[in-house]
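Q: My labmate handed me this sequence with no annotations at all. I'd like to see what the chain might look like in three dimensions before we decide whether it's worth expressing. Could you predict it?
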Amino acid sequence: MPYRLLFLAAAALTSAGIVLAVVPAWVRAAKERGLVGFDMNKPGRPRVAEAGGVWAVIGAVFGLFVLEALHRYVLDEFYYPVELFALVAMLLLSAFLGFMDDILGWKRGLPRWQRVVFMAPIALPLVVIKAGKSRMALPLLGVVDLGMLYPLVAVPLGVLGAANAFNMIAGLNGLEAGMAEVLLVGAALYAHIHHVAFVPEAAAVMASAVAAFLYYNWYPARVFPGNAFTYSVGAYYAALAIIGNMEKFALAAFAPYFAEFALFLRGLAHGVYKENFGRPQEDGSLLPPYDRAYSLTHAAMMAAAKLWGRATERNTVALLLAGEALWVATLLLLALHGAL
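A: Here is what I predict for the chain of 340 residues:
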């Protein structure tokens, strides 16, 4: 056991260390080459380096390699190599496709359904290894056995759905990375509670990389995550749930994204294709972009204004992250008492 904890610590430090070391250089290079975006929630819309989240993915990949190498060379054992290398392949695929989206602007030039089709390959590593179990526990439905439909249909749909949904709650400094951190730590703790092998370590390695990236992405952000980050983290989260047979918890913890989709549909019904950005004021406060909430970010701005007298980017993000953390903590308490 001490060896395994040391191996995990080494892997986590590797993933975080790479991010901390490389992102500052990426910020300089991105600005020099014009790979920047506008920070829409600040007066004057300052320019910020784009697509830096790809280094969180790279950091996690090297962390996973270190984890496997230490088990192999020190203990002379393989540590779930099939699952680990499937995760690595999936991360690299999703990061590549997301990065192409970031630098070529396909997210602006292609309809959403075409982008979903374009991203279909990211689920292939899990399909190839027939990851997960066909019997899974789902909220409201209970235990369902899908047979061969699970690896061939449910797994791709789950991975693609999570990858695309994860960037719906976005647009404010630290929001995407913060939500990722809460979900990954929650997945690691849930897997540990239920004695699921490998998943706690895999979740912790990615969480370490995300935490290091969050250092640069927190308000005021020096770098934006980009779709390379959101696609990869969403897909990775779904993959952990599949490998660990944790679909019930993963779907429950993902509840804010279902709420976000419902609010998005509400906006479409009112002729609004919602933006997550607020209307920045000269004093640093934010006003919601619409009179009604068509996103959780809008609802959080309205709630922050009532709680603190005005909404800012920081208290809006803090409110959203606190809400998700409280929800995940509730699910973990249920798991500790055998109710989930």
